[in-house]
Amino acid sequence: MKRFLPIVFAFFALPAMALLPNPAPAAVTYQGELREDGVPLDGIIPMQFDLFASEIGGAPIAGNFLPVEVKNGLFQVELDFGAGAFDGDERWLEISLEDSQGDVQVLEPRQPIGASPMALFSFDTADGGSSSPFEVVSGNVVLSSGRLGLGTSQPGARLHVDADGNEPGLAVTYGQAAALVAHSNAGVSVGTGDTPPAGGLAVKNKTILAGELETFNDATFNAPVIVNSSASNPFTVTADPGTSAATKIYVNNHGLTVGAGALGAPNRGLRVHSDARIGGRVGINQIGNQTPARNLHVRADSTTDIALILEAGSTSTAAQPRWGIGTSRSSDDMRLFFNTGTGGYFARGSFNSSTGAYSTSSDERLKDDIKPLGAVLDRILELDASSYRFKNAGEHGSRTIGFMAQDVQKLFPEIVEQGDEGYLAMHYARLGVIAVQAIGEQQAIIAAQKEEIDALRAELEAQRQATEQRLAQLESILLGEAELAEVSQ
Q1: Verdict on whether the full-model pTM lies above 0.85
Q2: Span 41-54, mean pLDDT?
Q3: Predicted local confidence at residue 242, as pLDDT
Q4: Average pLDDT of span 26-40
Q5: What is d(CA 455, CA 467) in angstroms, rounded to the nearest whole number?
Q6: Which domain does 290 fall in, by range?
Q7: pLDDT value at residue 33
Q8: Is 96 exposed, middle or buried (CB count within 10 Å of its CB: 0-12, 13-18, 19+)?
Q9: What are the beta bridge partners of residue 369?
Q10: CATH number of the domain that residue 106 is part of
Q11: Average of pLDDT values for 250-258?
Q12: How far is CA 10 from the centre of its chain?
């Protein structure tokens, strides 16, 4: 005879409506594992489920005979013993089945039924009546009168939960996530299970206020949150209230300041003393309800082309050299301006809005101390172009071509500059000016050489003509002597 071994890993579970009074659903779920001689079973197996009032002996109260699908030894069945099967007393489940040889075997021992199925009896008396203070109204369980106390025999409110100080008094979860928890420190957390400040509130994620929030004793409101105070900074958020350097946010009669610092916001403006992260788009000097076109949309005012100013960091409050960037109001070109810190902004160049080509300022009226460049051809001939790869590009980086700045600096120091880090940089565009100068010098050489060649050609031509004339004379003399000899004969 085969030996079956039931292994229960999850017992009874109730459907969502199991707490309702008569007529209460009597169906419960049973899950288990079934093996024959240690081997998990598979297939459809007829099984008998009987409900008893004792662990051994006695007659079954109710039973279910079902063909059960078993996969890799695991099975789950829905059992319905009827609402009268559970009256609040203990219950056991006995399972019998037919083995592969056709013999019926009873699996031992009987399995005790936990408290969960007894919820079928929660509102019912043994005679089918009700002695519970709860009632059902339109499918809802209602406590029509009195108070409900959990953890206390003297509830002080309609619902009174009294924890023992070591666990939360109330927890509302959505799946596995905590939605609302009343902690043992008298604090409440919303959207998180993290412990809030004692007697305080911790809120995670977005908070929506449908109405207004009162923070002082005044019933007049005209905004969702109003802080009415005569203090210089009526609304302040700090890490340490006693340390001004720890201030994170404060609002005063000027504007909003974020981050620690003594400098306040400009009039009705915003000042940020540290890093800022903005999840959406930012528009500066927008018109009306104009929506920023990109993450940062800066619009100049109507009196200037400059919309953005860049300035190096400095501990001095004095004006520093700075760059201005903007869009031309007449051509839509992007323009660059520079201010030395002691005067106005002067145009330095622009990018063409149609082609993207860069044009640099070159008007003679903007220049001073003008001198000829001088001869450059001999110096250009000393330059050696190279092919190379930048070190930070790695061994697989692209190769490029150019000159070594140190070599160029010796010949043309005007086109080499040293940066703040000590490295040399070249103005390759200026090589075009030098190339034009060199071409002019070369053309002068070519013109002189052509003039010399033309003179040599003329001289050669004269010599050729003279030679031909002499040859003609010799030929005439020789022909005359030949005729004289012939006559003599």
Answers
A1: no
A2: 90
A3: 56
A4: 80
A5: 18
A6: 282-366
A7: 84
A8: middle
A9: none
A10: 2.60.40.10
A11: 66
A12: 42
